[in-house]
Structure formats: C-alpha cells, structure tokens
Amino acid sequence: MKTLTILFIVLITTYSFPQENVLSGKHKKANVSNLQEVHRIKSPLNTSTTQVLKPINISNKIGVTDTLSYFYLFSNKIGFGLFGQDWLIQWFRAPASLWIKGLGFYCDDNPNNTPAEVKIVKVNWTEAQLISADTLQRGYYEALGNGYNDITSFLDNPDRTGDWTSIQSGDIEPFEHDIWSNNGVGYTFIPDETLKDFQWIDMNVLGDEPYLSEGEIFGVALKNTSANLDGDGIFFSAGIAGYPGWKFYANGRWIPGVDYGWWTKEYTFDFRVAVDIISGGIYFYSITYLSVTLSTEPREVFANILAEGGVPVNIPLISKIFYSTNQG
After folding, report:
1. pTM of the full predicted structure?
2. pLDDT tens for residues 110-158?
3. What would the 3-class secondary structure string for the chain be?
C-alpha cells in the first residue's frame, strides 16, 4: 500500500492588503518655526502605495511585508530643512515583532547635492512622552574637540567624549545605542530631488537587517554631512501629524553657537520604514483536504489565513506542494 505525505509551503508573492500601515493619533497645533528651515513643497509628493516597496527585496522570512508611515495623517505639508551637521530623527513604535528591510526618504530639494548619513537608534522615551513633548531645547552629548561646538547627537557617535547634558529638568536621556550603523557611523548617500519619489536604502548595505520586538521604539536618524554649519540645506517632506520628530541643531536653532543640541519639534518627518512583520507567524485554516491518490494530474489547493491575534490576511497565493510516497 502506498501513502502520500504532503508538505504545504506557501510563497507570498502578491498582496491585497494595504501596503501602508498608518500610525494614528491626535493632531498637534503647530508652533512657529525657524523660517529658514521650512519652505513650500517644491515637488508634488507621490502618494502612491503601489511603488513604495518596489526597490526592496521581498524577504525570504515568513511574514507580512508592510510600510510604516505617518503620511496619511499629515496636514500643513512642507519641505523641512536640514543644514550642515544637523540631524533629523523620526521615531516609530514597532506594531509587532519585525525585521526592518529598508528606509525611504522623499527629498524635496538638495541644490548642492550634499550627502546625507542615515542610521537607526534605540529611543528611551515612551510613546506618550514623545507624542506630548512641546517644542523645547532638550540637550546633547559632549564631544570635546570635534570642531562643532563640542557637542554631538548620539551615544554611539565616534566623536562623543562625555555623557548626556539635559537642558530641561527631569528629562531622561532620549536615546540609547545604535540599532543599525557601522561602529556609530551611518550609511552615506546623496538625497536625489530629481526622483520626485521615495529614495530607498536597503538595510543590507551595512550588513544585517535589524530585528525589533513588538512595542520597541526606534528612531530613523538622518544627518546633513556638510561641514558648513547653517549652510548647504537639504529639504525633506514633513507635516503636522501628531507624532512630532526631533532635530539636532549643530549650531543653534535661533542663536548661532548658543541654543544648540536636540530640540523636540512640531513636525513629523515623512520617513518610511519597509518591514517584514513576523510576530507569531501566520496561521492556516480551512485548507483543502487532499485524499490519498496515485494520480500525477495537477490538483488545486486553497487556504484561508490568519495573522497573529485572529486578524484575516487576504493574500492571493502561489503554492508549491512537496510530496513523498511510502511503501507499506
């Protein structure tokens, strides 16, 4: 007697669920900002969701590919300026256990083709603290002798020589170690305004893809590498969305050489994060039952799928069935 053992393996190849995981929240009223760092959007933003993941290689891990973004919450869309040695950071809370596949940036203007540096850092503040933060000067790390007001932005930066200096009483240190960098140095690229679309950075350019557990808060950090303090501006899309980002002013926000360091901002920066959500795997139910047969003719197999927590995942499937026969 022969029996047929079937191993059912699913290759996720096309998606009918939304590719934008919009993080919702209350809108905050904008404060007056430094007019040098904001301008009208030069190029129309591409709001398409079909192209967001195009440059990213689909992971071979079993998971759901998605994009973290605040874009659909935006009001008052602007181009936000990043000048010599300044940083922007936009934070996200991992909605589930995930692997980060890539980072996307929309450059609105880069007239001098100034290079930018990008890395990912761990954030210490809670989501509630980050959402409710007013626009204030927060602090910096000591970096004696670095030539840029003796301050730096992150714990793992190579020029850091001292601890965090807090400007606001009661502030805890906002950042921890780097999650994705090369010994404290991020990946350098030239933001391209001519794309008129998102420019994607694959995590493999610096090695492994970062893994985050559900609930972890991380920051996507972007630096203007120019040595020209307050010059060589690069502008990125931003808006008011209720999830305010941070900016590191290497030479001060209002007074050069005085009010420098990290500031919490009123703007949310339109950075996007391509991820594989893998929390708990994917569960199959209502799988087509195949009776034992010796036929070699093609047979159709159908399955319904649940993600962790019982949420339906409507995914068209291309399936391979591997089988073996046993003599008995």
Report:
1. 0.72
2. 999 999 999 999 999 999 999 999 999 999 999 999 999 999 999 999 9
3. CEEEEEEEEEEECCCCCCCEEECCCCCCCCCCCCHHHEECCCCCCCCCCCCCCCCCCCCCCCCEEEEEECHHHCEEEEEEEECECCEEEEEEECCCCEEEEEEEECEEECCCCCCEEEEEEEECCCHHHHHHCCCCEEEEEECCCCCCCCEECCCCCCCCCCCEEECCCCCCCCEEEEEECECCECEEECCCHHHCCCEEEEHHHHCCCCEECCCCEEEEEEEECCCCECCCCEEEEEEECCCCCEEEECCCCCCCCCCCEEEECCCEECCEEEEEECCCCEEEECCCCCCCCCCCCCCCCCCEEEECCCEECCCCEEEEEEEEEEEC
